[in-house]
Amino acid sequence: MKFQQLANTIFPSIENTPDYYINKYPKRNIKEGAKVTRYAPSPTGFQHIGGVFSALIDERIATQSGGVFYLRIEDTDQKREVEGAIEDTINTMHKFGLDFTEGMTGDNSSKGDYGPYKQSERGEIYKTFAKELIAKGLAYPCFCTSEDLEKLREKQIADKLTPGYYGEFASCRNLSEEEAIKRINNGERYIIRLKSPGNSENRIEFHDLIKGDISFPESNQDIVIVKSDGLPTYHFAHAIDDALMGTTTVIRGEEWLSSLPIHVQLFDILGFKRPEYAHTPTIMKQDGGSKRKLSKRKDAESAVSYYDEEGYPMISVIEYLLNIINSTFEEWREENPTEDYHNFEVSLDKMSKSGALFDIVKLNDVSKNVICRLKADVVYDYYIKWAKQYDEEMYKLVTANEKLAKEIFNIDKEGPKPRKDFAKWNDVKEKIFYFFDDLFKNDGKENVELPKNVELEEAKRIIEAYAKAYNFNTDKDTWFEDLKAVAVELGYATDRKAFKKDPEAYKGMVSDVAGSVRAALTHRANTPDLYTIMQIMGEKLVRSRFTEFINL
Ligand code: GLU
User: Where in the sequence is the domain holding 11, given as residue range(s)?
Assistant: First the structure.
């Protein structure tokens, strides 16, 4: 081959040819139409919610089609590597029900026939392909320093030319083989560049599975394929790995869309079949009047750990992400309230082409729906699991009062419109604290929420009167009749129409009386059904709360 000697000088120990690897990793034996997808993070140690978003799409597309979903670790930027990050990634995804069928299984272990699945262990493979490109005159060593490149760039900008290393500006492109070998033997530092055959006047038509039909100019840039540390760039590794690992569908963030011309060219030059691509929208957040990228630095909710700490059931996060992925999920969920989300078919072409808006309020709604569908026993189990780790006081209280806690979690659950009190386990304490004296005693007078038109002293009078009439052992209707009788006795209306007609004739409505009882028992205006609360509390607790309230 033309530049075999140069190739041998650069990679003296590489003996295999690309064919060796092409034969080593044969075509996958999967059924027609099955998709092979991968999650390919850099092991930085930070689990971003965007990673779960990506992995969920990958997993759904692979699993729905009976394909393969594998984990590849992209650790060629070794400065960023963090100990234990791979295991952490696997555990995080597992928690969200996302399990890899192939690829890395731990920091130093893997399964599957298409490995190694960690880029830092694939050095030989990249070098083999780079060597062949050099020998064929399709790649070359470049000795330009960063100062040289900076000067070139300044000049191109001043001349109003596209900046970059290409065509006539690619000065190392035309070095003779002897000269290049001489400089290497002299110990000069170099990188390896692709000799781009592209012409920026030509346009390429492309179909992206999310963005639809797109068109872009051919790449004419002599991009770097191997860095001075001998490791491949993202571009080069992407082409080789996804080709050899048999990825059918590259699903990745839209920040890579602008590199697509380079990738298409690399696949062609390397003689690989191009995969399908799907570029997912970036997760954005509304910040005042504008949208911006969800930021690791500014937004707590960008970290996966946030959802653990706040106590969102993982399924809530998944269902919320499915809402972002396909807006049709919401309707499907309404029509199929009890179905497993796996039965919803994710489709890439229904995905929003622009930013995906991340919205905690919407997440809370979704999560309330998820939790309200759970049986009380299940809520209890989830809750104590969370509390054990994040709220010891609640853990002790709730587990010491298991029966009571389950009764509380069961309030208004069985009916056709179950209550939607909790979006996350961190909400539970504020919603149920009043059942527990230990917590209630710390809730100060300033927190008592009285009905709008009732002063504290009047509320106390109401409680005094009601305490006398109160009878624990009655059904709900009788209980309400008793309450109304107290209302009438104190000058409150029991009939809305009568009250509306002549408001001056009354102190208020029976709802003000009920609201005062509610305030005495719970300190809160918004609670589940009062009769139920009183039944669960029991007569003794109710009476002691009345006394405490009167002495407030
Ligand atoms: N390691 C790349 C990233 O984290 C992966 C992109 C891809 O999926 O190809 O952005």
Answer: 4-15+123-280
